[in-house]
Amino acid sequence: MKNIFLLTILMIAKMTNTNAQNSNASNTDYSYATVPTKFVQANGIKFAYRSYGKTGDIPVIYFNHLAANLDNCDPRIMDAIAANRQIISFDYRGVGATTGKQGASIADMAKDGIAFIHALGYKQVDIVAFSMGGFITQEILLVEPQLVRKAILAGTGPRGGAGIPDVVGTTYSDIFKSLLTFRDAKFYLFFIQNKVGKDAARNFLKRLKERKENRDKKVNLYVLKKQLHAIKKWGNENPMDLSAFDLPVFIANGDADRMVPSPLSNDMAKRFPNAQIKIYPNSGHGGIFQYHKEFIPQAIEFLNK
């Protein structure tokens, strides 16, 4: 009888271990084009998110750009990180499939980001942030610095940085141009308008369409206006003391960023005490997308080092 009991326990343990292994394996079988959208409650909001990749280390959270939903993540970058780490993207409050009304400030978005991370059960994460996502990440550092182990800040700048309030005018101008030319506004906002930049823009926008099923809800004009207002307000606020944060930071940008001026990347690199920087030539705001083949190994080395 005792032997039967022990054998039963061993069989249950083996089945549990096998199920866990199968769960981990299935997590790596997805690509960003196929990974399902999940939901979690935090701060009274139902957040939409996508999570996949190699588990075992602390996860990487992706903070997206202005007026971006889950479908605006570059699948090449997401899949490459997923091959090495668990990567998680999510919709901000009121964006895409996430409920609620868009936050009124960058600080509000940071509080939501913190709540989202804790709702998933994580006490520490790495962050990859692009554009407005970099603004939000800096506010997270101010509120809960121990939450972030490492941060990649791409196409972004510091609070109070010269030129950040001008994002509003640049965005509306390029949206108007995109309507006249029947193009996605990111074609103009993210890429310089020479042959190299235009080719990179077409390739990037094509990658964003690789997901064919279960795409996210489109971002409406209300969200765009609220986020632009939050960015302008944040750009006019007093600068943050970045020297207080000694976490490793990897800063990346193009050398001709029209949205968040490239000199602000150099400014951040000088003000963070433990920063490295990469400026990609002949590229704009979306430098990491144009140079994704170079950025990916640099980012992975930084995150895994």
Question: What can you see in these coordinates?
Answer:
The chain has 305 residues and is of the alpha/beta class. Helix content is 44%, strand content 16%. The protein is built from 11 helices and 8 strands. The chain is globular and about 45 Å long. Mean pLDDT is 92; it is low at 1-26.
N-to-C series of helices and strands: HEEEHEHEHEHHHHEHEHH
CATH class: Alpha Beta
Largest sheet: 8 strands, mixed
Overall outline: globular
Structural domain tally: 1
Total beta-strand segments? 8
Radius of gyration: 20 Å
Number of helices: 11
**Spatial ordering of strands, largest sheet:** 1-2-4-3-5-6-7-8
CATH topology description:
Rossmann fold
CATH architecture descriptor text = 3-Layer(aba) Sandwich
- Structural category is alpha/beta
Name of the CATH superfamily: Alpha/Beta hydrolase fold, catalytic domain
- What average pLDDT do the residues reach? 92
The residue ranges in which pLDDT falls below 50 over 5 or more consecutive positions are 1-26
Question: Could you estimate the helical fraction of the residues in percent?
Answer: 40-55%
Strand content: 15-25%
First-last Cα distance: 52 Å
